[in-house]
Amino acid sequence: MSLTVTSLASGSSGNALLLRCGEDALLVDCGIALRTLEGLLRYQGAEPGQIRALLLTHEHGDHALSAAALARRYCIPVVCNEGTRVAMGAELDGLAVEILPVGQLAALGPFELRSFHLPHDAADPVGLRVSAAGATVAIAVDLGSWTEEVAAGLRGADLILVEANHDRELMRAAPYPWAIQQRIIGPRGHLDNVQCGELLAHVCATTPCDVWLAHLSQQTNTPQVAAAGVRRVLSLAGVTGVRLGVLPRRSPKGPAAAPTWRAEDRLLVQRRLL
After folding, report:
1. Which is it for strands 159-163 and 51-55: parallel, antiparallel or unpaired?
2. If one looks up domain 3-269 in CATH, what number appears?
3. Residues 86-107, mean pLDDT to the nearest whole number
């Protein structure tokens, strides 16, 4: 039995991450249409009935769009903190909602999980650290800056998913209203490539790890620009043990097509990453 992580969607158009260990699964966020999600799960050979819980990092639509519909259709419990539960309002009424306070350890079948605060403009946004079968994945997307709490939540994980949302120069040239630009680049907005690289240099200075760059902007970043920008910062910091992959906004359709990481070999398995 081994931990497997599969990205189904990553970006402002929707986020969903599938974690599996044996016959059990967790879904982190559900920010895409239910029918699309069901198809992506089928392509991965995963049945909704295998999902022990849907973990919500926060209430924004690109993370929670079809959370209530999925939970209601397949009787899947939703796990989130109280702030997110309140922010979701009546959407979660009548569903099994388990409140997980930030920082508290919880067990779901073979999975152990703990959340940590993220600086983002949502009610109470969190990152997640999930362990199973001796391996750990740490997730921090949708954050405008990073703190020692964020770094501690990522440090020592075998796989780190972290936001590299935009390139600074491309953002300056983007046709966004000034208020939107200020929100994105602000301390409760989204990390740019340099900030992402600085966080990884701080976290991975002594411990080799696999990293997936996530939540790339379609307008102000590209996989090539993101990877080059992060690698530049890591190189300047003298950090060499980071193996980078860049997640596509939507996983390709078809069996075994989605980006998948398997703890059994500690290697990124990337297929047709954009």
Report:
1. unpaired
2. 3.60.15.10
3. 97
